TrEMBL record:
Cofactor requirements of the protein: pyridoxal 5'-phosphate
Function: Catalyzes the cleavage of L-kynurenine (L-Kyn) and L-3-hydroxykynurenine (L-3OHKyn) into anthranilic acid (AA) and 3-hydroxyanthranilic acid (3-OHAA), respectively.
The name this protein goes by in its record: Kynureninase
Keyword Nucleus: no
Subunit structure: Homodimer.
Reaction catalyzed: 3-hydroxy-L-kynurenine + H2O = 3-hydroxyanthranilate + L-alanine + H(+); L-kynurenine + H2O = anthranilate + L-alanine + H(+)
Compartments, record wording: Cytoplasm
Family affiliation: Belongs to the kynureninase family.
Gene: BNA5
GO BP, one annotated term: anthranilate metabolic process
Keywords: Cytoplasm, Hydrolase, Pyridine nucleotide biosynthesis, Pyridoxal phosphate
Cellular component GO terms, alphabetical: cytoplasm
Binding site for pyridoxal 5'-phosphate: L162, T163, F192, P193, S194, D195, S248, D277, H280, Y302, W333, N361
Length: 487
């Protein structure tokens, strides 16, 4: 992708650091419409034609990553009674924000572990033909995970599942003081239900009332997402009463990418602890958790990290807390010092950093499933993926505006490309039309995610391409026309 970005981003070359590249991307792609039309002008093609989509694909330096994944065939995702137009073709899979596709290598890695188990039994913990002894299986993914989220290895642990990890972290970092003057939790608007349940239960655990101690951000009237100014104002006003600010990095419903650095700075200035649920951000946007000074974060890995359904999750604990062993925590043997772990002396000696929050030994099969995906990430960088993502999602936005002109739906995701991930959420204006649209999209071999009256369309830069975006918009235009919406 940088092949076609370079002329528009001024000296965008591979010898630049990722930080410089990131800044050039941010300054080079501000107006998506203008940027898309510049690319079309350079290629001397009509930006609304399928030739332009092919031009973008041909100049995409990340296009080879697609072949690392198993792409579902259209015939395999079509519902009963609906016949796909091209059943032998690949489906258009824009649902990585719900479940990422399977890397081809995952099957081999899982089978290798099954073979070791069959041949070696318990010996596989210490002697492993593929040099992945189970006793330290997480070592195969921690450093790669740290790179993806902008952290140090000591700040990362791969363990458990998302909500379990949030509970473990909040047990340490949501500690209402004895005078009960700082006991509130601030969360985003329409927080993911599991996050809300976890937060409410933590408040009750401390004998407090969520109705009084939970501050839920609400968008301004007529808005679909909350502005940074609104967030900063509530932190400034209520910060002295807030114990924990817990936001998502990218909102699951609207696709808004929150200004994590500025939220963190403002909240910590008021004495608040800051945590993030990064389930829709990790592997999607550029993160700099260590540099931003975030206290803690948690995420699942089955969305943009492609680890498989129910895959193992991860946590971040900033290095500044690495040796703070006085905080309360729920301990388990895998968080204890490795050298004494098997001495069974019943003395918990927490590992410094995020590793000390581990409770049980991780599932080997889940870890190697994650490893197969992280190996693909190692072939590129989050900066490169983000660059393609900005253009890919921008191209989707451009075609929707030009070809459908917003009739029948509205985009409720921020229009600023730097305030969103790879997702556009389309909210349909007529009652019950979303269900009909989703059903018809499936008949074209197109997979998207549904939430109430909204479909969430998420072209993933690792395995989606520009021709698929063109195919989606073309199908949607036909469907809307067939449903009587004038386009």
């Amino acid at each position: 992708m940088f092949g076609i970005l370079a002329p528009h981003l001024k000296e965008f070359t591979d010898d630049l650091s990722d930080e410089i590249k990131y800044q050039k991307i941010k300054h080079g792609i501000k107006d998506v419409k203008e940027f898309i039309e510049k690319l079309a002008s350079r290629g001397k093609v009509d930006p609304l034609s399928d030739n332009f989509a092919r031009y973008l694909d041909e100049n995409d330096k990340l296009r080879h990553l697609r072949y690392e994944f198993s792409i579902p065939k259209a015939r395999d995702i079509v519902s009963d009674g609906i016949e796909a137009l091209s059943p032998e073709d690949d489906s258009v899979y824009f649902c990585g924000n719900s479940l990422g596709l399977m890397p081809r290598r995952t099957r081999d890695l899982v089978n290798q572990e099954l073979d070791v188990w069959a041949a070696s039994g318990v010996v596989g913990h210490f002697k492993h033909k593929h040099n992945r002894p189970w006793i330290s299986i997480e070592d195969n993914v921690v450093e790669k995970m740290a790179e993806i989220v902008g952290a140090k290895p000591i700040e990362i642990a791969v363990m458990n599942t998302l909500t379990s990890n949030l509970h473990l972290l909040m047990a340490s970092f949501y500690t209402p003081n004895t005078k009960k003057t700082r006991k509130k939790i601030l969360i985003e608007p329409m927080a993911f239900p599991s996050d809300l349940y976890a937060v409410e239960s933590q408040i009750r655990f401390h004998g407090l009332d969520p109705a009084k101690e939970l501050i839920k951000m609400v968008p301004s009237e007529g808005e679909n997402f909350v502005s940074l100014d609104s967030i900063l104002k509530i932190i400034e006003k209520e910060g002295h009463t807030i114990s924990l600010v817990l936001f998502s990095g990218v909102h699951y419903y609207t696709g808004q990418f929150f200004k994590m650095k500025k939220i963190t700075e403002a909240a910590q200035k008021k004495g608040c602890i800051v945590g993030f649920d990064l389930s829709h951000a990790v592997g999607n946007v550029v993160l700099k958790l260590h540099k931003w000074g975030i206290d803690f974060a948690a995420w699942c890995s089955y969305k943009y990290l492609n680890s498989g359904p129910g895959g193992i999750a991860g946590i971040f604990l900033h290095e500044k807390h690495a040796n703070d062993f006085n905080r309360p925590r729920f301990a388990g043997w895998w968080g204890s010092d490795r050298k004494s772990r098997f001495q069974l002396d019943q003395q918990f000696k927490p590992i410094p950093g995020a590793g000390g929050f581990q409770v049980s030994n991780p599932s080997v099969l889940n870890v190697v499933s994650l490893m197969s995906s992280l190996d693909i990430f190692s072939k590129t960088s989050m900066v490169h993926l983000r660059a393609k993502s900005l253009v890919l999602t921008g191209y989707l936005e451009y075609l929707l505006d030009k070809q459908l002109n917003g009739l029948g739906f509205k985009i409720i995701t921020p229009r600023d490309p730097h305030q969103r991930g790879c997702q556009l959420s389309l909210k349909f204006l007529e009652e019950n039309i979303r269900e009909k649209v989703s059903k018809e999209l499936v008949s074209y071999g197109i997979v998207v995610d549904e939430r109430n009256d909204t479909i969430r369309v998420a072209p993933n830069p690792m395995y989606n391409n520009f021709s698929e975006v063109f195919r989606f918009v073309k199908a949607l235009k036909i469907i809307m026309g067939d449903l009587g919406v004038k386009v």
